[in-house]
Specification:
The protein is an alpha+beta fold and about 80 residues long. Helix content is about 25%, strand content about 30%. It has a 5-stranded antiparallel beta sheet with strand order 4-3-2-1-5. Strand 3 and strand 4 form a beta hairpin. The longest helix has 9 residues.
Length: about 80
């Protein structure tokens, strides 16, 4: 599966334009220093100590917003790391 990884700070800026409420993301553990990733379907995953947790999803034309905000393109996740 392909993802774009970003900081929690970046995600919190993105969701103001469509997606979960920033307060909701904070309640599930997203901080400005969190590591999060978004897949092509818009699912948001939060990096925990020992796993990734799906915590919500982006809506609308999120692909263009994510690429613009991060400067990144989709990359294959390597499950061997």
């Amino acid at each position: 599966m392909e993802f774009i990884e970003m900081s929690g700070r970046c995600l919190l800026r993105l969701v103001h334009e469509g997606g979960p409420d920033p307060e909701e993301l904070t309640r599930v553990g997203v901080t400005k220093d969190s590591i999060v990733r978004v897949n092509r379907q818009g699912d948001i995953e939060l990096r925990r100590v020992d796993r990734w947790d799906v915590i919500g999803g982006l809506l609308g034309d999120f692909e263009a917003r994510v690429k613009k905000e991060t400067g990144l393109d989709w990359a294959e996740a390597n499950s061997n790391i």
